[in-house]
Please model this.
Amino acid sequence: DVKVTQSSRYLVKRTGEKVFLECVQDMDHENMFWYRQDPGLGLRLIYFSYDVKMKEKGDIPEGYSVSREKKERFSLILESASTNQTSMYLCASSLLQRGAFFGQGTRLTVV
Amino acid sequence: AQSVAQPEDQVNVAEGNPLTVKCTYSVSGNPYLFWYVQYPNRGLQFLLKYITGDNLVKGSYGFEAEFNKSQTSFHLKKPSALVSDSALYFCAVTVKAAGNKLTFGGGTRVLVKP
Model:
């Protein structure tokens, strides 16, 4: 089975801090994604990557950046955390016809 | 642009009764459709998918879904619900041209009462 691992389950950060969320997948998938999940809003795509060093903005990229230096690792960066970025963050990797495989999520609280 | 609608925020059903969670979609081209389930404080788990072929697809835990192209729907069903089916359910869609980018609905919370 595909395994997608997010480095932290829970994080508490202060406003203005630079925050790194790490995600690693073990199935050699080319495509990786970062979503945020908020009640009533479902999952919204922040960024996705279809190859090493390749990235595209999703629907809500403002305030975020990403890094993909190796195929198995996709990092989400909050350059200067703000309270409105308090959310559940979900990483996924995928093959088109198999859908997406998700990590367990990181619940980030910005205080 | 592709989009997914799940018209019900919550569905309540008694244990043993049929369960239906509704999903409609909008895409340009042939859709690839998915259902995921999320239990509390967990990531999303894959339930089933429609890529091509038979309109009725069967998935994990006794769930099935029917693809209806004319109604652009992909409703999730289970003939007899269990209390353990209580969770948050998400429908998602993509097309080949979108490069695997999945668009999700807002989610439907299912509550199965004993």
User: Anything to note?
Assistant: Chain A is about 0% helix and 60% strand. Chain A has a mean pLDDT of 92. Residues 83 and 110 of chain A are 5 Å apart (CA to CA).
